[in-house]
Write a structure and sequence with these properties.
8 strands; Rossmann fold; oxidoreductase; 8 helices; two-stranded antiparallel ribbon; ADH_Fe/GldA; ADH_Fe_C
């Protein structure tokens, strides 16, 4: 067996039920003023997650600015608007709170808050210009409230260009979150259908990473455990939404799937899926 790989995984992961509270005391926040990015829906406000995050951050001496326009399929116009808000308010890091759309958008906003031009200038596929991201990104903190994308532990962000209907993934070492806080209690309110859809997203991220020619020993290790956990616990989480053990297992599998995407890659199925949506 030939062992040859590149392992880079800089995200600090704080995982566990109730760990959202650690925002009030953690020394690992990468700045003093955060742009908090959430979706245009009302779930973050309805369930009190946004209020809690802002309250805990205030207790930790962190100022916050809210950007709450993200769509289920995030668009480049909102990336530009969020980046302008971050710059205008002198934010020194970005927090993505919510599902994959919010955290992906937080990554893209963090990139454009540091780099000139338009977002699609830096996209290397489709109608993008493939310019180099020379100035990196603002530090990113990911707080997922769903279990599926694994975006809290991968560098990728998927944004849509509305003029051409292109939906393209993008990212680099600069867009890996510096901190991920994964609290399964935030996932207890997810309805059964979305629990299933999101869980299968994590399943395929891991399965594809295992099958990819870019796989490596570490990605295989995480992928196999994620697939095993999802197979065992996702049906329970779907049928018993308040079962914290099942929610925790699926949440960890999702986080693992992000690590798999960082160390390996997806295969053609994901690009096909983007084209079909």
């Amino acid at each position: 067996m030939k062992l040859e790989f590149n392992y880079y995984m800089p995200t600090r992961i704080i995982f566990g039920a109730g760990e959202l509270n650690i925002l009030s005391t953690t020394p690992y926040l990468p700045g003093k003023k955060a742009l908090v990015v959430i979706s245009s829906g009302n779930s973050m406000k309805k369930y009190g997650y946004l209020d809690r995050v802002r309250r805990y951050l205030k207790e930790n001496g962190i100022q916050t600015v809210l950007f709450d326009k993200i769509l289920p399929n995030p668009i480049s116009e909102h990336v530009a608007e969020g980046a302008k808000m971050a710059k205008d308010n002198n934010c020194d890091f970005v927090i993505g709170l919510g599902g994959g759309s919010s955290i992906d958008s937080a990554k893209s906003i963090a990139i454009m808050a540091k780099n000139p031009g338009e977002y699609w200038d830096y996209i290397s596929e489709g109608s993008g210009k493939g310019k180099e991201v020379k100035k990196g990104a603002l530090p990113i903190v990911a707080i997922p409230t769903t279990a599926g994308t694994g975006t809290e532990t991968d560098p990728w962000t998927v944004i849509t260009k509305t003029e051409t209907n292109e939906k393209i993934g993008f990212g680099g070492d600069y867009s890996l979150p510096s901190l991920a806080i994964v609290d399964p209690e935030l996932m207890l309110s997810i309805p059964p259908d979305f629990t299933a859809y999101q869980g299968m997203d994590a399943f395929f991220h891991s399965a594809e990473g295992y099958l990819s020619i870019k796989n490596q020993p570490a990605s295989d290790m995480y992928a196999l455990e994620a697939v095993s956990l999802i197979t065992k616990y996702l049906p329970i989480a779907v049928c018993e939404g308040k079962n914290l053990e099942a929610r925790s297992a699926v949440a960890w599998a999702s986080t693992e799937s992000g690590i798999v995407e960082s160390l390996s890659s997806c295969v053609s199925h994901h690009s096909m899926q983007h084209a079909l949506i």
